[in-house]
Design a protein that fits this description.
Layout lengths: L1 H6 L2 H6 L5 H20 L3 H16 L4 H18 L7 H10 L6 H18 L7 H11 L5 H20 L5 H9 L7 H15 L10 H11 L5 H19 L6 H11 L5 H17 L8 H11 L5 H16 L10 H11 L5 H17 L1 H6 L1 H10 L6 H14 L3 H17 L1 H18 L2 H13 L4 H17 L4 H8 L5 H14 L3 H11 L2 H10 L7 H14 L5 H6 L7 H13 L5 H11 L8 H5 L26 H25 L3 H4 L12 H10 L3
Helix pairs in contact: 3-5, 4-5, 4-6, 5-6, 5-7, 6-7, 7-9, 8-9, 11-13, 12-13, 12-14, 14-15, 14-16, 15-17, 16-17, 16-18, 18-19, 19-22, 22-24, 23-24, 23-25, 24-25, 24-26, 25-26, 25-28, 26-29, 28-29, 29-30, 30-33, 30-36, 31-34, 33-38
Length: 702
């Protein structure tokens, strides 16, 4: 203290803390001159003594005025040392930095001002304290005093100038400082950090893009800041970086893609939009680099395909399309199992657009990586089956496309039909609402005959008779009404003359016995009119119910459609189609007279030329021959009736009737509730005179 006092007069030291600005300024100039002279004379010890007294006796003093004076004095020392100032930074800078967080705002301001003067004096040499000064500026940027903030702003600008021109400044050392502060949510701090990112990115020799993955997440986080200024600055910075990425093929797409995937799920709309804007460009320009992130990106894209914001939806869909166009194999790093898992999860989305996109992905993977997808079939099959109950027709059609693709392998077809039957058994509503659509689409994509044979095989072994009946009715109705099954109907029409058609007829007959109307329909389609009449005769022993009458009414309406146009034309020559006429009259007698179907059918039969049945004709089943026509309408002369064992088929039908009758009786004995009985083979029974009418018809009385 004594040595320093001899160097700096006591009056000068007193004036450093004086309330008058002029006295303080004069004292600082005096210290500057004294130190300059000592530097010229190379009096190192004396210079250190001056610095020491200012640092210890002033900057660390409890009195704010003395701390201010000490800081002013240290600034004067740095200016006075001139080019020799860098040698004393270790003694000058730490005391100043200690006052950055001073409780007195004026002290904090003077501390930043002192750092400014020191940095200006030494320029690039101040870089050794860059991390500490940067930390100090980060704190001062959020200072409660606007004057302090303005002082910090001046220091910040100077430090940026020094950093951009100094060869000692290192991005490798700077980026960790930046990264650890990117999560600070204070808007002033964020503006401070964004300022540094923008300035350094505009320096040609500094590659901030190379380190972008380290602080990209922080930039995206700022897009949802409460301050419009911060959001705008972050947007501008991200836009500049994205433009650079487009022109820089060596960018680290992988690390950045992980950030984008995370931010794609942000609750902030603008953050999601920006992340997808980036992701879209990544997929377009860096597809090869994104293969390891393939599944992650898909996981982010699928939910946003149905985002509430239109812009996000559109760019997410575009990104999804671009991503699906990338042709990559497991050998390149694509995990098919993971991609399938994500696509499967998309099937549970509340939005149909996402479910549709997920199905497109599964179809694409099947097309490109069949073997790999098949190995994961057990993992996705249940989800694909569940999708058949989807309320969206588009989803159902697409999932059927996927099922059909899987079923191109005959083993998988059997597996699919088996699961479909189980699903229909457990979900009667699905059978009712989607059954026809499902069967039609499968028949379009696959061989219709094979599909029906598989269904028939499964139903034939079905123990649940009620379900078997409902299933057959659904299949039969689809067979008779769907344009997609026209070729199958043509094939069945030749059941009595073509061996392949006969085999199909026999395959369908057994399960079709679960529904009398379906059996009759099959016989009419196959022109097995004699057998159809025999089936009707067996119904004489059954209770004709409301459900049966309803099904019969549907058949009557179907007989008026183009599908049965050839059958109706055969009625023009009743003498050649005796069994057909007899079958149709039998159906008429089964209908309630007050029903619309009865009136329609009776009107139709009234148009038939008069004909009196000959009992001799009816005794010979071989007369069936004269009733068969080919596709051209010409009669077939071959005796083919004995090629199918119709008596055996009739017994089979009768046995099935008995099984249903026994099942109905069991249900009645188990419960007297009519609601339980209503699900039986026939439903509610009500009296009709049909039995006697059918009997009379068979005897040839009518």
């Amino acid at each position: 203290m004594a040595e320093a006092s001899s160097l700096i007069p006591a009056s000068v030291l007193r004036n450093l803390t004086d309330k008058q600005y002029e006295k303080r300024k004069k004292a600082a100039v005096t210290i500057q001159d004294i130190v300059g002279k000592l530097a010229y004379e190379q009096e190192v010890k004396k210079i250190l003594a001056v610095i020491n007294i200012l640092a210890t006796e002033f900057t660390d003093n409890p009195q704010p005025d003395r701390r201010k004076g000490g800081l002013k004095g240290l600034a004067a020392v740095a200016v006075g040392l001139k080019e020799k100032a860098p040698a004393y930074l270790e003694e000058i800078v730490p005391p100043v930095l200690n006052r950055i967080s001073d409780e007195d705002s004026t002290v904090r301001y003077i501390a930043s001002e002192t750092l400014y003067n020191v940095a200006k004096a030494v320029r690039g040499r101040i870089i050794i304290y860059f991390d500490k000064i940067f930390d100090a500026l980060c704190k001062l940027s959020d200072d409660s005093d606007t004057i302090v903030q303005s002082g910090a702003h001046l220091l910040d600008n100077l430090l940026k100038d020094i950093a951009t021109e100094s060869d000692q400044f290192s991005l490798e050392e700077f980026v960790p400082l930046l990264r650890e502060r990117m999560d600070i949510i204070n808007p002033h701090v964020r503006q401070f950090l964004l300022g540094w990112i923008t300035v350094l990115n505009n320096v040609p020799d500094m590659d901030m893009l190379c380190f972008l993955p380290d602080y990209l997440d922080g930039l995206f986080n700022m897009l949802s800041d409460s301050s419009p200024e911060v959001r705008q600055q972050a947007h501008c910075a991200l836009s500049e970086f994205l433009q650079e990425i487009k022109n820089t093929p060596t960018s680290d797409y992988g690390r950045m893609a992980k950030v984008l995937v995370q931010r794609a799920g942000s609750p902030d709309d603008y953050t999601r939009l920006t992340s997808f804007t980036w992701m879209n460009e990544f997929v377009k320009h860096g597809a090869d680099h994104l293969i390891p992130c393939y599944s992650d990106i898909l996981g982010a894209v699928l939910p946003c395909i149905s985002d509430k914001e239109k812009e996000i939806r559109e760019i997410a869909r575009e990104t999804n399309k671009e991503l699906r166009a990338i042709i990559a194999s497991p050998a390149e790093g694509v995990n098919i199992g993971t991609v399938l898992t994500i696509a499967r999860s998309g099937l549970t989305s509340q939005a149909s657009t996402t479910r549709v996109a997920a199905l497109h992905w599964i179809a694409t993977l099947l097309d490109r990586h069949w073997n790999e997808v098949i190995s994961f079939l057990n993992d996705i099959f249940s989800s694909l089956l569940a999708a058949l109950s989807d309320p969206s027709d588009e989803v159902v059609i697409l999932v059927l496309e996927v099922h059909a693709c899987l079923a191109e392998d005959s083993q998988n077809l059997g597996h699919l039909i088996d699961h479909l039957v189980q699903t229909f058994r457990n979900d009667h509503a699905l059978l009712e609402k989607r059954g026809a659509l499902i069967v039609r689409r499968l028949c379009v994509r696959l061989d219709a005959e094979q599909v029906y044979r598989e269904f028939s095989s499964k139903i034939e072994r079905e123990d649940d008779l009620d379900f078997a009946s409902n299933m057959v009715q659904a299949l039969n109705f689809t067979l008779l009404t769907s344009s997609e099954l026209a070729e199958l109907r043509i094939l069945l029409k030749q059941s009595l003359v073509e061996s392949s058609s006969m085999d199909l007829f026999v395959s369908l007959y057994s399960p079709w016995c679960h529904s009398p109307i379906a059996t009759i329909s099959l016989c009419l389609l196959a022109q097995a009119y004699n057998h159809a009449s025999s089936v009707i005769q067996l119904l004489e022993e059954e209770d004709i119910t409301a459900k049966f009458s309803e099904q019969l009414g549907k058949l009557v309406y179907l007989l008026e459609t183009p599908v049965f146009a050839s059958l109706r034309l055969q009625l023009v020559e009743p003498d050649k189609h005796v069994w057909l006429l007899k079958t149709l009259y039998g159906l008429l007698m089964l209908l309630p007279q007050q029903s619309a179907a009865f009136k329609i059918f009776r009107t139709r039969l009234k148009t038939v030329p008069s004909y009196i049945f000959n009992n001799e004709q009816l005794k010979h089943p071989c007369n069936q021959v004269s009733e068969i026509t080919n596709d051209s309408g010409d009669q077939v002369d071959a005796n083919v009736y004995d090629k199918i064992n119709f008596p055996s088929k009739l017994q089979q039908f009768q046995q099935t009737l008995r099984r249903h009758r026994f099942s109905l009786q069991s249900q009645k004995s188990a419960s007297s509730s009519k609601s339980q009985v209503s699900t039986s083979f026939y439903g509610f029974a009500f009296p009709l005179v049909a039995r006697s009418l059918v009997g009379l018809l068979v005897l040839g009385v009518i």
